[in-house]
């Protein structure tokens, strides 16, 4: 069993050209021999956003802290602590921080894509 | 895309003989056509616990609120908001509430076991 506080796991900058002020912690991954899916924690700073992407795998998201919106390329929907988002494979999506604090959310994806 | 507050999802009692004061919300599942893994939110009431089990699939857990311990059959390890627990397949584990409020945690498991 692996038991850690998420703050102990290093936050790395998300390195895409169009992404602003976004870090990720790889909490559970294939490095832990997790066979099926990975847990990551994103921290989007103020006036920041995640990648606008339509990958061909699903995302399971839980908003932990902050305020934001998810954008599907056409409309925005509000997010707050406790919001659950299921993004199906090939659905375009982006998470934007619209609040005054960091927007933190868990995002789980399959390991074998 | 499915976007809901977790409180909108019905909490159902966890119905095992040895489990005390434990409810679960099935936030994302095969009902949403999630192909690989399911997100559930457990709410363990005071003096409650989850099933002591060694299933042959992994659990990826994130503690949201409350205080508790995880018990592996031999020793207990403290849990609080922000603790990440990876339980590998066949590892015995149980979550117990040791605080004065509800212990809430996300627990993700594979859909195909």
Tell me about this structure:
The structure is a homodimer of 113-residue chains. Chain A is mainly β. Chain A contains no helices and 10 strands. Chain A has strands at 2-5, 11-13, 20-28, 37-49, 59-65, 67-71, 76-80, 83-87, 94-97, 103-110. Chain A is globular, with a radius of gyration of 14 Å. In chain A, 34% of the residues are buried. The mean pLDDT of chain A is 95. Chain A binds chain B through residues 1-7, 9, 27-28, 32-37, 39, 58, 60, 62, 64, 70, 72, 77, 79-80, 82-89, 91, 93, 106, 108, 110, and chain B through 1-7, 9, 27-28, 32-37, 39, 58, 60, 62, 64, 70, 72, 77, 79, 82-89, 91, 93, 106, 108, 110. Strand 1 (2-5) of chain A pairs antiparallel with strand 8 (83-87) of chain B, so a sheet runs across the interface.
Topology:
The structure is a homodimer of 113-residue chains.
Chain A: E1 2-5, E2 11-13, E3 20-28, E4 37-49, E5 59-65, E6 67-71, E7 76-80, E8 83-87, E9 94-97, E10 103-110
Antiparallel strand pairs in A: 2-3, 3-4, 4-10, 5-8, 5-10, 6-7, 6-9
